[in-house]
Amino acid sequence: MEASSDSESIEFSTELQSQTQTILSSNDNSPMETLFSHFFNTNNNYSSQQHSHSLTFFQCCKKHHPDLLFIKLFFLLRCSPTATTRANAARVILFLKPSHLWPKLKPMAQAHLKAHLIQYLKEETTLHVIRLASLVTAETVSAIYNSNNRHQQQWPEVFSFILSSLASKDDRFLEVALLILSALPKRCRLMLSDHNRSLHGYLLTTLCSTNPDVKTASFSTVVSLVCLFYDPSMFHELLRAMMVGVFALLHGYECSYFRKAFKELINLVSQEPSMLKPYMSDMVLDVLQIAESSGLSKGTHCLAFELVMEMAGMKECESVLVKLDYNVTVRVFMVLMNMLMCVEEDKKRDSEEVKGEESEVDVYKFGMKCLNQLCVTLGGSKVVPVAHHLLQICMDSPEWKMRHAGITMLAVIAKQFSDEMVFSENFLSEVVTKVLKSFEDSHVQVRLAAFNFMETPSNFVQVAHILYHHRLVHAFAIAIDNGHDDKVKEQAASAMLFFLKNTLPESLTLYKNTDTLMTKLLSLLQGKESAKQRSLALSAFNIVSQQCHEIGHRQYANYLPILLEACNDKNSEIKEEAIRGIRICAQFGTPQFKPFVNRILSELSILIQAPNARNAKEYDIAVSALGRICEFHRDSIDGSRVTFSLLDKDLLGAGNQNLLKIIEVFLEHIGRSCSMPSVRQFSSHASKEQKSQKMLLYLTGLVFAMVGSTYAAVPLYRRFCQATGYGGTVQRRETVEEKIARHDKDKTLTSREIVVQFNADIADGMPWKFIPTQREVKVKPGESALAFYTAENKSSTPITGVSTYNVTPMKAAVYFNKIQCFCFEEQRLLPGEKIDMPVRENGKSEVADTIHNFRKEKK
């Protein structure tokens, strides 16, 4: 505890000030003893109130009667017959800070206290009290030699007492002197520089003491006084004695002594890495000797390895660790593998986990932290060969925990050194072989780790997907069909989904048993699987259907009834994937889709009747699905099932000025096969008055006809924008026949270059990184250009995004054709996943002379 820094600003009542003075001046010590018991007892609410009252009392004393308070506390420390009262008095002095109280004393009182404090240190026999008194002495020395009080009396007697105590053979005096030295501030330590030779000899003696308290106190003293021992020979002797002392404490005394001493050794590495650099290789070997000992607890192993981690985190030590012998590095990583074996099973901590005082140590978590840190420090050229060597040892082990540790190690290293792993000879093929074997491991947690590894967002896993897709598809097909528990099947389905999203369509098309995989996915959807499994199966089926149309066509007849049923599922993820599947089937499954059109329209109508915050995503996907149905199945639409939807006011324009253009687009989109003349043809054969009347009637009827098709809002809006350039949207791509006819007509292509600049914006709150891979390209009118956008999910959850686009200046949009683009398509990225998406554009040859730059913006 520390005294409140605000105590000086607190105002205390006159009554309390009088009460505190009475108690401090009284010869009756019982009120102070009562205050001590209240101050150090906070077991319940009532005790907390008592603690608060006693704290207020001490703060009032410190502000208004600091001299009386210090004298009273010192009197109790020296003269109280009970050890508890003496210890509590020392604790309160430390809490109130002697550096705050000492300057408030009169010189006579200071001299009196200095003399009596040294005498008290010689007389006190209770160990825990004298240890507290040693800290009080050290802080008092600090207050006396404060740089702001140089003209005050000095205290040479205390240094004489310390040196004489170190020269004695009394363990009590030795420990007191060591504790005072270890707690001294730096400016006081430097005052002992003239005695460094004597102190060096004393410390060598105490480090070899048979008393564990003295030996442990020596460690903290060496760390505190290391500034006095910069001479290499002196430091070498002290460090050697410390290492010998550590092993003596480890094997001959309680583990608590070793922990205290070893923590001081870690502090020494932190404070003086340059001095320790010549010894670090040997210190690593000493750490390994402790960490590899099977007779020690896991907590002791972790503490020993903290020394290596302290080195790994310091730049001065990196070169030492990198230059470690290969066999030593293997031993270091093998220690980490043993830590990673401390995994939980059935929600219970393994019996090897440390207990009692060490139960707070999470060995597995600590091992993961060390593995990550060492990988960063050592680099891929050092780590990958070691990992390759350990792969065989871990994955061929009969113990499931070691196999699990091996896969965990691969996942960590693959995230940091994917390229080195890929180019390491035979490493990739061996990893794939071992991981695929682990898909069928006898232990559930090894299988989970293997499937989880195949979802690692790394180049290594992506290369494995590409080069070994045939083996992976086969393995996933077996995995989702095996009788594993639900958690394993979910992880297997998730890994398969990750593979399908990142693999090439040809990888599935070339695999002869992909139909078998699709059949197994259908069986998952029809069975009594968990909601998570069904959602993953729907996602996987949708991806395959979208990437490999031929494979999807063969399954749509069985898939569509499942989708219709899933549209009514209570689980929102299943419902969303089902609607997304309907949208895909509407676009690519024309023959099989027609019999289900009216039923699907009914389901979608229900889904979009009452949009709200909870079903906003379902609503958006449903509207998009309706647009696909109207675009690809307009001949099969039952008009009575299509509901009215308001037209976009921005689309209509002020005074409905864009209505004529809208109808033109509607005619092109829906009325291509109709024999009715277009609006332009109709208006060219009538008188001005007749045209107005007939146009009004014609448009009225046409608008009513079109209102019935407003389910097609998404594709119609897109078609309108493509036809008009509205909103900076590029026009639709010409057919080959149209392009040939146009070129035959004008026979002219300009050689002028146009700069196409690319930009990207992200919606507020969306944790994606979305940027153009290149800022601009140069094309000639009539030529096409290929560009890429890069998207990366920076969050910890899968996120689906949809991009829109526009072209500036607005007048340039009509001259700009989009040949290939990911726009208006959902892109689902897993946590950390990064993809490149292509955009192929074409500028018309008749682009206006005033236009020199296109600006392509995506959101």
TrEMBL record:
Keywords recorded for this protein, A-Z: Membrane, Transmembrane, Transmembrane helix
A molecular function (GO) term: copper ion binding
Highest taxon, organism lineage: Eukaryota
Subcellular location as annotated: Mitochondrion inner membrane
TM segment ranges: 695-714
Renumbered residue ranges of the record's region Disordered: 1-24
Domain IPO4/5-like TPR repeats: 139-284
Major subcellular site: mitochondrion
Recorded topology in the membrane: Single-pass membrane protein
A GO cellular component annotation in the UniProt record: mitochondrial inner membrane
Pfam families: CtaG_Cox11, TPR_IPO5
Function, as annotated: Exerts its effect at some terminal stage of cytochrome c oxidase synthesis, probably by being involved in the insertion of the copper B into subunit I.
Name this protein carries in UniProt: IPO4/5-like TPR repeats domain-containing protein
